[in-house]
Amino acid sequence: MTPFELLEPASLGEAITLLDPDDAAVRPIAGGTALMLMMKAGVFRPSRLVSLRKLAAAQSRIAIAPDGTLSIGAMAPLARVERSAEVARCAPVISRTMLRLSNIRVRNVATVGGCLAHGDPHMDLPPVLIALGAYVSVAGSQGERKIAVESLFAGYFETVLEKNELISELHIPAQGKSCAAYMKVTTGSAEDWPALGVAVSLTRDGAAIRSARVVVSAATEKAMRLAAAERTFGRAGEAAAAEVECISDVRGSAPYKRELVRVFVARALHQALDGTGATH
Length: 280
Description:
By secondary structure, this protein is α+β, with helices and mostly antiparallel strands. It has 3 domains: 5-50, Uridine Diphospho-n-acetylenolpyruvylglucosamine Reductase, domain 2; 59-172, 2-Layer Sandwich (Uridine Diphospho-n-acetylenolpyruvylglucosamine Reductase, domain 3); 179-274, CO dehydrogenase flavoprotein, C-terminal domain (Enolase-like, domain 1, 2-Layer Sandwich), CATH 3.30.390.50. It is built from 12 helices and 14 strands. A 5-stranded antiparallel sheet has the order 4-5-10-6-7. Helix 11 (236-243) runs antiparallel to helix 12. The protein is globular, with a radius of gyration of 19 Å. It starts with a strand and ends in a 6-residue tail after the last helix.
């Protein structure tokens, strides 16, 4: 690796001032599980890294608000989210998803904010958060703004974050009586990057389904909702396969992934309905 400057600010405000919106070689680093791999491979050569390590104590809180909103600090390690009683109570689909998200060594280090800011379409958490209607608080030199996780991703490894903005907190609205599921399809080991991720959330009114959110990832350039699949339950798989634009990579061709979408969107919807949540 080439030499670089490493700074360790003591506050979120100080960290923002150390980022340079005009220099792509200046980056924040939280857990560093993805960034360090990119640096070792020579894909990214930083001139300056702004470490967020000293912000962990202040930015890793997990709490439930009086209105039922679950808030998770951006520096919370994924393993803490996995074990959180608050998360299990408010959004159990997240707790189940974490069990197959990479391995425990990565989950001990990787953070919620870093996972979202990285923009990797193969991540397991983003589609689940989109299905749950989650949003993030983002801090920058111009103040704070809220961004729905659904609107956070702009493309392949791209987000709408400015280069001098940091995710400070994740918020998941109260889920009420909705039911959710996440299905992960891998071509390797169970915790490997998925060839397809499908997250669904259903709101029921008695026996009737009042609304649905259907999200796919990994087979696409970014985690995304499928509006056509959300409008029809009986033919959701076929509607999803017709709507989605799949990409080819080492985990499968676009036609193969489209077939996965057709099969697993339908399966995920039924998993949510029967209450089993996430399948492995």
